[in-house]
Specification:
Length: 170
C-alpha cells in the first residue's frame, strides 16, 4: 500500500475485552479504547467481551482477521499471569508475524508509570492476514498508555518515519 504521508486514512478497528467479570456496564477499558479510536478519526467495527477462554478468544479474533473490512484489532485483558489469563496463548498462534517491539516499548513506557510491576505484563502484538493485532493489559490505565503513547501514532498514516497503516490492506 502506498499512501501519501500527508493524508489521514481512517481505519476500521475492532475492540475485544477479555474478562470473566466485565460486562457492558463496567468495561471501562474497552469503552476507553472504543471512544479514543473514534476520537482519533477511526471507525469502530465492533466491540465485544469474551471470557478468559483461549478458544473463545481465538474464535472471535479469527473471525475478525478473516474480515477484509477490519484493519486492526485491539484486545484488553488476559495478559497477566493468573491461571485464567490466556490472551497471549490464544492469539499468538494466529500471527503471521510477531511485532516484538510493541511489548518491549509498552513495558518500557509502563515502567515509568508503575515501576517494576510492568514485568508482569505479557502485552504483545502481531500481524495476521494484513490485520494488525495489539494486546493490552486489562486496566484502563494500561489501555490509556498503550493507546496514547504508541497506537495513536502507529495507526496514523501521517506518522513518520513509519507506521502500521502501510502494512494494512486499506
Amino acid at each position: 500500500m502506498s499512501h501519501s504521508a500527508k493524508e489521514f486514512y481512517p481505519l476500521t478497528i475492532a475492540v475485544l475485552t477479555v474478562s470473566d467479570t466485565r460486562n457492558d456496564d463496567n468495561d471501562t477499558s474497552g469503552k476507553y479504547l472504543a471512544e479514543s479510536l473514534v476520537e482519533a478519526g477511526h471507525q469502530l467495527a465492533e466491540r465485544k467481551i469474551v471470557i478468559d477462554d483461549r478458544y473463545q478468544i481465538r474464535a472471535q479474533i479469527s473471525q475478525w482477521i478473516a474480515d477484509p473490512n477490519i484493519h486492526v484489532i485491539i484486545t484488553t485483558g488476559g495478559t497477566g499471569f493468573s491461571d485464567r489469563d490466556m490472551t497471549p496463548e490464544a492469539i499468538q498462534p494466529l500471527f503471521d508475524k510477531n511485532v516484538e517491539g510493541f511489548g518491549e516499548i509498552f513495558r518500557a513506557i509502563s515502567f515509568e508509570e508503575i515501576g517494576s510491576s510492568t514485568i508482569q505484563s505479557r502485552s504483545l502484538a502481531g500481524m495476521a492476514n494484513h490485520t494488525a493485532i495489539f494486546c493490552l493489559p486489562g486496566s484502563t490505565g494500561a489501555c490509556r498508555t498503550g493507546w496514547s503513547k504508541i497506537l495513536v501514532d502507529q495507526l496514523d498514516s501521517r506518522h513518520k518515519p513509519c507506521n502500521f497503516v502501510m502494512h494494512l490492506e486499506v
